[in-house]
Design goal:
2 domains, 5-stranded parallel β-sheet, two-stranded parallel sheet, 6 helices
Length: 175
């Protein structure tokens, strides 16, 4: 069982393909559900699979609510959280802080004097908060003052990032 918050991204397609390949080799079947980033739907799906026969849950989520926590604690099958660290569960995630730091540092070393940042809500602890902190730490370490109008919060889509960048017209920023 695999719950994905939003299946339309290319990264999701690669994740599902890889997970599906490994599960097929082990003679498991995959059941994929899409919540489209609707937290209520995520909780409903978790509850559905908690009460029905599945061997495990691979759950890719962005923002955990108290309702998520309540259902997750009641799960009777193994749960793996992908993309976030979540105490008490097996998790597979990236170091978003270090990744944002490294890319910001690269921009600075390539001559960027006024970097820009397009992020998502800080409620998303990995993609939102950790990446923003990595970006800001790199600026701090290189003694670059951030221009507040060069930091934007967008939806978690490429189109939204492009739209927000155009709307705010980053001032000579690398974004």
């Amino acid at each position: 069982m695999f719950i994905r918050t939003k299946i339309s991204s290319e990264s999701c397609a690669r994740e599902v393909e890889g997970i599906s390949r490994v599960l097929n080799e082990k003679r498991y079947q995959i059941l994929l559900v899409n919540s489209a980033n609707n937290h209520q739907k995520e909780v409903e799906y978790l509850d559905l699979f908690r009460n029905n026969r599945v061997d495990g849950v691979i759950f890719l989520a962005t923002i955990f609510t108290p309702r998520h926590e309540a259902i997750l604690k009641k799960m009777r099958v193994p749960v793996v959280i992908v993309g976030q660290e979540y105490k008490g569960f097996c998790c597979v995630c990236h170091d978003d802080f270090s990744a944002a730091y490294a890319i910001t540092e690269l921009m600075i070393k390539k001559g960027g004097k006024n970097p820009g940042f397009i992020g998502v809500t800080e409620s998303d602890k990995a993609a939102g908060l950790a990446r923003k902190k990595g970006f800001l730490k790199a600026l701090h370490d290189y003694r670059i003052e951030i221009q507040k109008n060069n930091m934007i919060t967008a939806d978690f889509t490429m189109d939204s990032g492009v739209t927000e960048k155009r709307k705010y017209h980053f001032q000579n920023a690398y974004a």
